[in-house]
Amino acid sequence: MTPESHRLQAVAQHQYGAISRDQVRRLGGDDNWIRTQLAAQRWVRIHPGVYLSFTGEPSWSATAFAGLLYAGKGAALSHRSAGYSLGMINRAPRPIEVSVPHHRQPAPQPGMVIRRRRVMPMCFGRIPATNAADTLIDIAATSGDVDEVVRLAREALRHVHIAYVRKVLEDRQRLRHRSLLTEILGAVEAGIESPLEYRYRRDVERRHRLPRSVLQVRQLLDGLWIRADSLYRGRGVRVELDGQVAHPGGRTDSDVWRDNAALVATSDLTLRYRWAHVAGNPCATARQVAQALQSRGWRGRPTPCGPRCAVGR
Asked: In terms of domain of life, where is this protein from (predicted)?
């Protein structure tokens, strides 16, 4: 039997070229017709009962939709696959990660990771995917990579309010890395915008008992609005954190102007650090920040984080 070609084409197009045997049957086709498409090399079998209605290299979206069709009713992209679908992750992840309701037990397939869940989160999108809050928590629970979780938390909060993320986190039972994610959410809520800023707050300031700076401070200097990554209010010191993405070649012309304007208008001393300073040698960075603060009147002393810490020398 031949299916209604225009309807079949519309369904496949909506699914990035993927289509299932059940869908073909509902449109009037049968297994003989499917075998004809495969024999003529017009279609390709990608999973049991799931096909691509074209030949050639499939897109990530086609592969993802085919995975959902195989996983069946109620399935959704999750973890890094959901993160990519939501725009939280830039690089298309492999394998395709799919979550299904717990009562379903699809057999494992090459190129897929299938997770059974007792409670399926809310899912959205043309390619159904878990919402941003659950996606963030899923990745944090399986990763534990601080830098990755900070980046993802920033992206997730573009889609969902932090209060909802906290509620979802509270509702989850037996969650790995719960304390890490709770800490990162608090840091992001306080204004941290990158893994470098998080490491500065955690490894330089907090571990060495330095005064806590104010993050992302906007000021009007020399007629223009500028923003300081980290400002020690009333202490005459500010810190700029230059990541490789924003400053691949070092300080830009606008960075130099900003530092000069801050010095002229406020007499603030600007310290500028990169990844190698904060992540590679946080103790030496803390010692230099402490020296700058002391030169501007701070009477405190940093605390060594260990027996080999540079601030104790």
From this structure: Bacteria
